[in-house]
Design goal:
The chain has 347 residues and is an alpha+beta fold. The protein contains two helices and 20 strands.
């Protein structure tokens, strides 16, 4: 009678296979998990600028001009390949027109709304100045920025007839300092009044800006993402920018517009330009390397399985032929060999 074999699939082989596959998956996931360049606010920027970002990398947003930013100025790359938080907004100031001043030389006040922080309006000594600014349309004003140069004064800002904000200015050096002011929202207004009472020396008012809320704007940025592209996000529109080697499929790059706090999207996306042969070849090489690694790991796993099978052979001998039987290597006897000697038995 021939010997009987127990060629079981040992648990250690399963552990080997699972360990190698887990290491491979971790390697592939680590390589693949990167964040693309983030969306950014209209009139703003972010730093640092990189082609892609590792998980945990932080970027910082800032506005190009002296305007308030609504939203968080930092975001982080997540393990999902997406960015945490929403894209912030860099606000656009409301246009001011027909400035009026209580003094005789009213034309001087235009230097405070010309958008140039280096040109300033100088108040008179020991005199209370009333500066009235008209908005280009009726709006709900909720923020303001006043930039002052050297001087000391008490400033009152009246946006609504029954609401006044007080600001104490004391700048002892020839520098420009800007103050951000938030107003309570009581309703729409058409004008804003800045009342300046300077001390013994004049004060320099270099820039005045007011910011309003429009019900037609969107309070949140677009939620849609665009592969191989990033959005330049404003209150009323979002413009699609494609990364190098890609282009927008249409000449119109405005991918989304906002009306009544709702985003409407256009059928725009980034398409690959024709001159991308080098990138395609690189993708093929990477795929070949990955497949080769998987095959090597698979072959190594099969080898380990066969080794465990040979070491796990048990011999069952026919009674009467005990002298021809070797002890099983699994008995723990140190005198046994690694492989059982199997011989045919005769009747």
């Amino acid at each position: 009678m021939l010997g009987k074999y127990f060629l079981g699939f040992l648990p250690t082989s399963v552990i080997y296979l699972a360990s190698w596959m887990l290491v491979m998956l971790q390697f592939l996931c680590h390589v693949a998990t990167r964040c693309p360049p983030p969306d950014f606010p209209e009139g703003g920027k972010y730093e640092p600028i990189e082609a892609e970002y590792a998980v945990g990398k932080l970027i910082t947003y800032s506005c190009n001009d002296i305007v308030p930013m609504r939203g968080r100025n930092k975001t982080a790359c997540l393990s999902s390949g997406k960015w945490s938080g929403n894209t912030p907004f860099c606000e656009t100031p409301t246009n001011l027109k027909n400035p009026f001043i209580s003094a005789v030389e009213s034309s001087r006040i235009y230097t405070a709304i010309d958008g140039n922080i280096s040109t300033c309006f100088q108040t008179r000594n020991d005199t209370e100045e009333f500066l009235v600014f008209s908005l280009d349309h009726e709006a709900i004003v909720d923020m303001g920025i006043l930039c002052f140069g050297e001087g000391k004064a008490t400033v009152k800002i009246t946006v609504y007839e029954f609401w006044t904000d007080l600001l104490n200015v004391d700048i002892g050096m020839p520098i420009v300092r800007c103050f951000f002011i938030s107003f309570k929202k009581y309703g729409a207004t058409k004008s804003a009044i800045v009342q300046i009472l300077s001390d013994s020396s004049p004060v320099f008012l270099c820039e005045v800006k007011f910011f309003s809320i429009d019900n037609k704007w969107c309070e949140e940025p677009p939620k849609n993402s665009f592969p191989n592209g990033q959005l330049e996000v404003g209150r009323s529109k979002a413009v699609l920018h494609c990364k190098e080697g890609f282009r927008v499929n249409d000449d119109t790059r405005v991918v989304a517009t906002c009306q009544n706090n709702i985003w409407s999207y256009q059928s725009l996306f980034c398409v690959e330009e024709e001159s991308q042969e080098d990138n395609s070849a690189l993708d093929i090489v990477i795929a070949a390397v990955v497949i080769t690694l998987i095959l090597i790991l698979f072959g190594l796993t099969i080898f380990l399985i066969r080794t465990e099978r040979i070491r796990g052979i048990c011999v069952i001998c026919k009674p009467g032929n005990v002298n021809n039987c070797s002890a099983s290597p699994n008995t723990g006897d140190p005198s046994t060999t690694d492989v059982c000697n199997i011989e045919n038995s005769t009747v």
